[in-house]
Design brief:
195 residues, mainly alpha, two-stranded antiparallel ribbon, 9 helices, globular
Length: 195
């Protein structure tokens, strides 16, 4: 029996440069399940090691994502909608997760991330954003003027960045075990994702 695949009509496969809120929500909805499928119940050797000094472990990345759910995306969206450019966002502490994650196992962190993401997406959908809302402008403390659309697109790209980072950190654990095949494994050649 052959299954038919759903396809979007006339999708331009060359590039996707405009932000699409439905596509963003679709991706953001799937990140907790993707993390859960990849990480839950793995041996700690995969999830607690990092790539060296001042780098994140898998557990650190999940803690960082939780911190972002609490303090970044929806908080900043609300600032844009309420204050526009007149009030800059609070600076994001990318290491703010450390205290919040203390004493929690990875399973607890995955559950917490899933719960917070679900709450944030309910809140995002409830905003009933219109195209003109997405063009509203806010002020980032380092980047200057940004739009709500850019913030939401960044939220999705941020998820993908950290999914990539998690893959890279885990592959790093086998960087010597793969021997000469390392030359063919792009994940082992990647130098990083962001500062």
């Amino acid at each position: 029996m052959r299954r038919e695949c759903k396809t979007e009509s006339k999708v331009d496969r060359r590039s996707m440069t405009e932000h699409n809120l439905d596509h963003t929500i679709s991706l953001l909805t799937r990140t907790p399940a993707a993390l859960n499928a990849l990480l839950r119940d793995l041996p700690e050797a995969w999830t607690s090691r990092n790539e060296g000094e001042n780098t994140f472990s898998v557990s650190d990345v999940v803690g960082h994502l939780i911190h972002g759910e609490r303090t970044d995306w929806m908080s900043r969206a609300k600032v844009i909608l309420q204050f526009g450019e007149t009030r800059a966002f609070e600076s994001f502490d990318r290491l703010g997760y450390i205290h919040e994650s203390e004493g929690k196992c990875l399973g607890q962190l995955l559950d917490e991330f899933s719960h917070l993401r679900s709450e944030n997406l309910v809140e995002l959908r409830a905003l009933n954003l219109r195209p003109e809302d997405l063009e509203r402008r806010g002020r980032h403390p380092a980047l200057g003027v940004v739009t709500l659309s850019q913030l939401l697109a960044t939220w999705a790209a941020h998820d993908l960045t950290h999914l990539h980072q998690i893959s890279r950190v885990m592959a790093h654990q086998y960087r010597e075990a793969v021997g000469r095949w390392s030359a063919y494994l792009g994940v082992l050649q990647c130098a990083g994702h962001s500062s």
